Amino acid sequence: MDNRQVIGSWLSGPRAAAEEAGVDFGYRGEQLGLPKEGPGSIARPGRRIAALAVDWGLCLLIAYGLITDSYNEAAQIWAPLILLALLLLTLSTLGYTPGKRLFGLRVVALDTGRVSPLRAALRTVLFFLALPPLVWDRDGRGLHDRLARTVEVRI
C-alpha cells in the first residue's frame, strides 16, 4: 500500500476504509427493520436539525411575544422551558412537534410504535443534556433515542 492510499483511507474515515475492505454495513435503519427510503425510514440529520430550528424559533416567539419584552430573558430562561414543555406534551401525545410535522418527521417507539409519556420524558431530559443527541450510532439515532428506545422516522 502506498502513501496515497494510506492518507486517502485516513481522510475518508474508518467506514470508507472498512467498505473498501469488503465490509457491508447496509443502510440506515436496516438493523431496526425499517425501510431504506420513503415513509418509515430513518430521518436524515438535515431535516431533524431544521425541525429543531423551527421548534426553537417558535418557542422564542412565544417567550418574547407573550411572556417578556426582553430578548435576552426570553432566550435564556423562557424559551428552553417552553421547548421542554412542547417536547414533553407533543411527543407523548402526537409523536411530533410542529417543526417535525412541518418537515414530515415523527418519533416512534421501536416496540409499540407510540411514544409513552415516560419515554417522551426520558428522551426530552436526555436531549436537554446536549451531549446525547450529538452521539450517534450507525443508524443515525442519537444516544437519547437509543436509551428511550425510540427512533425518528419520515412520515
Secondary structure topology:
Blueprint (H helix, E strand, L loop, with lengths): L2 H10 L1 H7 L24 H23 L3 H23 L4 H5 L2 E5 L7 H12 L14 H6 L1 E5 L1
Antiparallel strand pairs: 1-2
Helix pairs in contact: 3-4, 4-6
InterPro entries: Pra-immunoreactive, RDD, UCP021697
Organism: Streptomyces sp. SID12501
Subcellular location: Cell membrane
Descriptive notes:
The N and C termini lie far apart (46 Å). This protein has a two-stranded antiparallel sheet with strand order 1-2. By secondary structure, the protein is mostly helical. The protein has helices at residues 3-12, 14-20, 45-67, 71-93, 98-102, 117-128, 143-148; strands spanning 105-109, 150-154. The protein has one domain.
Key terms:
two-stranded antiparallel ribbon; globular; mainly alpha; 2 strands; 155 residues; single chain; 55% helix
Distance between the termini: 46 Å
* Number of helices in the DSSP assignment: 7
- How helix-rich are the residues, as a percent range? 55-70%
Number of strands: 2
Summarize the structure.
The chain has 155 residues and is mainly alpha-helical. It has one domain (41-154).
